[in-house]
Amino acid sequence: MRFNYQIIRERREEMGLTIESFSGIADLSISRICALEKGDVIKPWASTINKLCRALGVERSQLWVEETDEG
Asked: What's the CATH number where 8 sits?
């Protein structure tokens, strides 16, 4: 399984939020949100996952995808 970083930007944009406003809602720094959205964070801390789930309105399982051999 790998972290599904694409869902962060997708959901944030669906919600009509800027990175700055989402940062406040998620209680994460702007730089952390940027790093997460770019995929620079491979294995986020559990506390970060919990904050993202609450802010995005998603289940924990939605933040992970199966790895493929393609690549």
From this structure: 1.10.260.40
